[in-house]
Automatic annotation (TrEMBL), chain A:
Annotated family: Belongs to the transketolase family.
Entry keyword annotation includes Chaperone: no
InterPro entries: THDP-binding, Transketolase_N
Name of the protein: Transketolase
Domain of life of the source: Bacteria
Keywords linked to the UniProt accession: Thiamine pyrophosphate
Matching Gene3D superfamilies: 3.40.50.970
Native species: Streptomyces rugosispiralis
Domain called Transketolase N-terminal: residue spans: 28-216
Matches recorded under Pfam families: Transketolase_N
Cofactor: thiamine diphosphate
From TrEMBL, chain B:
Superkingdom, taxonomy of origin: Bacteria
Stated name of the protein: Transketolase
Domain Transketolase-like pyrimidine-binding: 2-168
Matches recorded under Pfam families: Transket_pyr
SUPFAM superfamilies xrefs: Thiamin diphosphate-binding fold (THDP-binding), TK C-terminal domain-like
Length: 233, 297
């Protein structure tokens, strides 16, 4: 899919308006925007990927594992010019590529089709291994999960394996809005740390803190950033 | 003669030398066959431990980066346990890979029902676009594995078995092979069932088609074999009747009858050997002859 009417100069302040095109709401609560800052800082300052390079073999990959509530993700992709904002109004419609869970086959820039929880991190592990096998070891792989998504056992297969293997090009962001039904304070980072990951826990609304956590060196280990946001109510 | 699994390891190890796109993903089971290959290609022989959801997820991730993954473990743990990963991490992502199973139905009867997955092919039938190969001999396994590895980005399932025919046939991937011709009906023998079927139908006036690729189903071969009598017997080494729908689709415009023989749904709850298990499931030559004869008019 190619577009001629994309915008690439939108900034963070445009995101609420872009989200409104999908939701019809002027303002958005914490639940709708829990991933907004986390995803924005990644695309704005960290990921080496662009709308022109969505097929570039050596691009960085961002995998949205937590496919629920993708409005913030779509808004960031539109702001960065991956597709025109005119698509946003069709969110969820029969003839729109923008579903309530993203489909990589339909949306430029979307790296995985998600929605069922617990698939993104294993796919990210495979992507990191594949890039290494292809000699594209400069490419970073990022995957975003929700704290409740970590309930799914498939994540723990991936966390344990990636830690043991020291997959340095693998990065996870866990957006922690305290939505897991059974949880323990500090338990998220501890689970990663126990298997050998580098970890950082930061305020998921603080752009500078996110940036520093994203770019912290982690030689020989995969890296997880736990981004705390307002608790889901 | 080596087994199909041994052939799998030796053939795929050589393919890894030649094709930089290929990567093998294992979950402990079968790793010994890839010791040398892992040394030669440490980035492309991947053992994720006893983690079958990760096995399939890693396969999908490799495919997303342009690799062609070859995944292997027992059918129970390759298709059944991580079935949602098979559905979502390959097909839904729009990527393909090669799944190579062993111990599908009755390879290890002493291991019991936890190590049997007679429903594997039926499960894959709920998904779009899977090619399914069922070799009946290690030489055929090699032919089909080479074909699967080279099949672009197709999704391919190769069902290896410890049960094998005494001699290989000159198979062509995707095609049924006519082994003998008769007038009273067509018996389709799948993979390792061929020897038993040929013993069972000795003296019966039937055509025997040998199927080592069951998806896509070679409908044209069945249509040209069927003659005036529309009677078809399927003898499949997995869940009985798995291909009955494919036969019906191939013969939709003409009257026909189908008898689907295979592994029943009910648990046998017996151990022992492959031969004992086949007899217990009504799939040994004596039982097959009785059931086929009773069906044919």
């Amino acid at each position: 899919m190619t577009f001629t009417d994309v915008h690439t100069r939108y900034g963070y302040d445009d995101l609420p308006r872009l989200m409104s095109l999908m939701t019809g709401d002027e303002k958005h609560g914490p639940a709708a925007t829990s991933t907004l800052d986390v995803v924005w800082v990644l695309y704005d300052r960290v990921l080496r990927v662009s709308a022109e390079g969505t097929e570039a073999p050596g691009r960085d990959r961002f995998l949205l594992s937590k496919g629920h509530g993708p409005m913030a993700y779509y808004a960031v992709l539109a702001a960065k010019g991956f597709f025109p904002e005119s698509l946003l109004a069709g969110f969820g419609a029969y003839d729109s590529p923008l579903g309530h869970h993203p489909d990589r086959v339909l949306v430029p820039g979307v790296e995985i089709s998600s929605g069922s929880l617990g698939h993104g991190l294993p796919l990210a592990v495979g992507s990191a291994l594949g890039l290494r096998a292809r000699g594209l070891s400069g490419a970073a792989v990022w995957v975003l999960l929700g704290d409740a998504e970590l309930d799914e056992g498939s994540n723990h297969e991936a966390i344990a394996y990636a830690g043991a293997m020291g997959l340095e090009r693998l990065h996870a962001v866990v957006v922690d809005n305290a939505s897991a039904g059974h949880r323990r304070a500090g338990g998220i980072a501890a689970r990663f740390e126990a298997t050998g990951w580098s970890t950082a826990t930061v305020d998921g609304r603080d752009h500078q803190a996110l940036y520093e956590a994203y770019t912290a060196p982690h030689p020989g280990r995969p890296h997880v950033v736990v981004a705390r946001v307002e608790a889901k109510v | 003669m080596d087994t199909m699994r041994e052939r799998f390891a030796s053939v795929v190890s050589r393919l890894l030398d030649d094709d930089p796109r290929l990567a093998v993903v294992l979950a402990e089971i079968g790793k010994d066959g890839f010791t040398d290959a892992a040394r030669a290609h440490p980035d492309r022989v991947i053992n994720v431990g006893i983690r079958e959801q990760l096995l399939v997820g890693v396969g999908g991730g490799l495919a997303l980066t342009g690799m062609r993954p070859i995944l292997h473990t027992f059918a129970s743990f390759l298709v059944e346990r991580p079935f949602e990963q098979v559905k979502l991490d390959f097909g839904h992502q729009g990527v393909g890979g090669v799944l190579v199973s062993a111990a599908g139905s009755y390879d290890w009867p002493a291991g019991g029902y936890t190590h049997m997955a007679p429903g594997d092919v039926a499960l894959l039938d709920t998904l779009d676009g899977w090619t399914v190969h069922v070799p009946g001999h290690p030489d055929e396994a090699e032919t089909l594995l080479r074909d699967a590895a080279a099949a672009g980005d197709d999704s391919v399932y190769v069902r290896l078995s410890a049960h094998s025919n005494s001699a290989p046939r000159d198979i062509v991937p995707g095609r049924f092979l006519t082994v003998r011709e008769g007038r009273r009906g067509v018996v389709i023998a799948v993979g390792p069932m061929l020897d038993g079927v040929l013993t069972a139908v000795a003296g019966l006036d039937v055509t025997v088609l040998y199927a080592t690729t069951v998806r896509p189903f070679d409908g044209p071969a069945l249509r040209s074999a069927i003659g005036e009598v529309g009677d078809v017997v399927l003898v499949e080494p997995y869940l009985a009747g798995t291909s009955a729908g494919a036969v019906n689709d191939a013969l939709a415009d003409r009257p026909h009858r189908v008898l689907g023989l295979g592994i029943p749904r009910r648990e046998l709850r017996r151990y022992g050997t492959i031969d004992e298990h086949l007899a217990g499931q009504g799939m040994d030559p004596v039982a097959l002859r009785e059931r086929i004869s009773a069906f044919l008019r």
